[in-house]
Structure formats: structure tokens, C-alpha cells
């Protein structure tokens, strides 16, 4: 088997996840549970025998703190991650900071569902999943994938929708099927890649 290893982890639970708020590019901290989820991810990855050579994360605190907590649990606190807003969560625009139930009351269940679960319809002032893919995938292709293909065991801590953009390519999802791909907070997915960047093996460490 190859050493071309890519690990994706959605950040641990944030304060706004707990409050059922649209978060997007807003920057709430991790909850106590989120901190525990990140630490547990580090314990699990260490148990798999992994040692990382490179790490990437978003420009948002919840992803950066998740990355730091994972690396500390693995005894790799000195590894400095590359931070880039290309890995940020989908921008929810005018929905950011709103309770999801309140948003349904304002715009209606059907409209909010369309914004959340369609591939290419953005909320007012925000991004669709297609927009997020268009932002995230070039960064993956130009920066993250070359690291993995060089044999660097690479950790990416980011967000539900920015990680969906990567998973869409790795797992060969369609615009329809990727919408159903759920990602638990703080749960690592380990991919071992072939030399042509396709997936040789996948291990999901979801709780």
C-alpha cells in the first residue's frame, strides 16, 4: 500500500452548531463537546499509527483549533498547518447568524430547504455548494493533492461543505448525491490514494 494518505476532519462541534444557527464565515469557538471530539479524533488517528507530514486548515478558528487539538493529541503540536480561506465553510450570506427555525419562519420551509440542499441555488448574499466547490477544488488540486502525491501524509481540518467539495472528487459523487453525504463533527476519514490521485482505500472513523 502507498504512503499517499489524506485525512479529512470536519471541525468539532461549534457554539453555533449547538444553537442551530447558520454559521458560514462567522467565527464561533468550539464547545466543550467540540474540544472533546477533536481530541478524540487525535487519539483515533494516533491509534491508526499515523504521523502527519503536512496539515491544512481554513481561516476560521473552529477548524484551526480542531487541527491544533488533533496534532497535540498525536504528539505533533510543532507541525504548523497551512491556513487558507479557500477551505472556509460555505458563505451563507444573509442567513449567517440566524437560527434555522427562524429562517424557515421568515422565508418559508421550502425556500430555506432549497438554499440548504440544492447544489446551485445560493442564499441571498451567499454561496451555493457549486460556488464552494469552485472555490475549494482549485486549492485542493494546486496545493493539497501535490503534497499527498509526494508521499506526505496530509491532514485537512475544515468544514462540512468545503470538505464535501473534496469528497465529491475523491468519492466520485454527482451534484445530486453529494448533497446527501453527511459529515459528523470531529470524525476522521482516511483516504489512501493511488498515484493517479484516485482512492485506493477509504477508512471512515465516524463514531
Automatic annotation (TrEMBL):
Chain positions recorded as substrate binding sites: 10-17, 23-24, 62, 89-92, 100, 116-117, 160-161
Sites marked Transition state stabilizer: 159
SUPFAM superfamilies reported for this sequence: Phosphoglycerate mutase-like
Enzyme Commission numbers on file: 5.4.2.11
PROSITE patterns: PG_MUTASE (PS00175)
One Pfam family here: His_Phos_1
Source organism, top-level taxon: Bacteria
InterPro entries documented for this protein: His_Pase_superF_clade-1, His_PPase_superfam, PG/BPGM_mutase_AS, Phosphogly_mut1
First-tier enzyme category under EC: isomerase
Alphabetic keyword roster: Gluconeogenesis, Glycolysis, Isomerase
Single Gene Ontology MF annotation: phosphoglycerate mutase activity
Catalytically driven reaction(s): (2R)-2-phosphoglycerate = (2R)-3-phosphoglycerate
Family: Belongs to the phosphoglycerate mutase family. BPG-dependent PGAM subfamily.
Protein name as it appears in the record: 2,3-bisphosphoglycerate-dependent phosphoglycerate mutase
Organism listed in the record: Xanthobacter agilis
Lineage, broadest ranks: Bacteria, Pseudomonadati, Pseudomonadota, Alphaproteobacteria, Hyphomicrobiales
Name of the coding gene: gpmA
